[in-house]
Amino acid sequence: MSGRTALVWPAMMWAFVLTPFAMNTLVALDTSTEFLSLAVAVGDSVRSVHQHVGQQHAELTLPTLSRLLQEQGIGLDAVDAIAFGNGPGAFTGLRIGCGLAQGLALAHEMPLIPVSTLAVLAASVSASRVLACLDARMGQVYWAAYVDGVEVCPPGLFTPEDVPLPDGEGWLLAGSGAAAHEAALRARLGAALAAVDGQASPRAEALISLARGGRWPACPPDAAELCYVRDKVALKTHERLAAA
Q1: 4-117+202-223: CATH superfamily
Q2: What is the pTM of this model?
Q3: Residue 146 has pLDDT above 70, yes or no
Q4: Can you tell me the distance from the alpha carbon of 244 to that of 64, in angstroms, rounded to the nearest whole number?
Q5: Which helix (H) or strand (E) holds 70?
Q6: Cα-Cα-Cα-Cα dihedral of 183, 37, 58, 96, to 10°?
Q7: 130 vs 19, more confident
Q8: 184 three-state secondary structure
Q9: Exposed site from 31, 88, 153, 186, fewest CB < 10 Å?
Q10: Which segments of the chain belong to CATH 3.30.420.40?
Q11: Helix axes 57-72, 91-107, angle to 10 degrees
Q12: What average pLDDT score do residues 124-135 get?
């Protein structure tokens, strides 16, 4: 683990200084949607899996990761950091991913790199101007905008009719929110839209690139936080009836 230096803080906390060499070997995982996306990168070699698993993230993540590590010929002790999508997204999936990442990082004394799920989604498509949009259920979407990978509209929770209007034209609308609410979003965005990709989802290969890019800082496992955006999981009965 030569590029990684542990520092002991007075409050018995620790952090890591990551040198460029320490970013050589990374694990990336995203469990924020119905897809399980995993990647193990050793230098320029990346082994990955991106598959629809529904609600089976807890059962499939570790076995799949073990297989990818084996394909790369390394164990977790050789990994320098774990990058994970920290939301927004499905509450249960986010907690599973964060919990697994924290457990592995603590056991093997490595840092975590939390990255916005919406940033990962934007980096997973081939476009410079991306409206990242995940279905948040309850008639809402998680939303953010990126230009050449730079966030120009921070993550938020909106109804399709009220998403922030982007500047200019030529935007790609990407993600499960686009599939679930395409008509309403097209009506809202009008001429700003160049294309829609409702099949796009956050991919671990893109997460590897973002983690290596330096914009997303590493942190101790116990300091990693999830970005839920929404603080309410389900509607009450009277709210469902009112929305019907």
Answers
A1: ATPase, nucleotide binding domain (3.30.420.40)
A2: 0.88
A3: yes
A4: 40
A5: helix 57-72
A6: -80
A7: 130
A8: helix
A9: 186
A10: 4-117+202-223, 125-197
A11: 40
A12: 98
* Beta-sheet strands, E only, within the chain: 4-8, 14-18, 25-30, 35-42, 45-52, 81-85, 112-115, 129-135, 141-147, 150-158, 171-174, 193-197
| Cβ atoms within 10 Å of 178's Cβ, excluding its own | 26
CB 112 within 8 A of CB 221: yes
Query: Which residues fall within 8 angstroms of residue 148, CB to CB, at 6 or more apart?
Result: 128
- Residue in 135, 99, 134 with CA at minimum distance from that of residue 116: 134
Q: What would the two tokens of residue 137 be?
A: 């259920």
DSSP reduced 3-state for 162: helix
The secondary structure of residue 24, as a DSSP letter, is S
Is the CATH number 3.30.365.10 carried by domain 125-197?
no
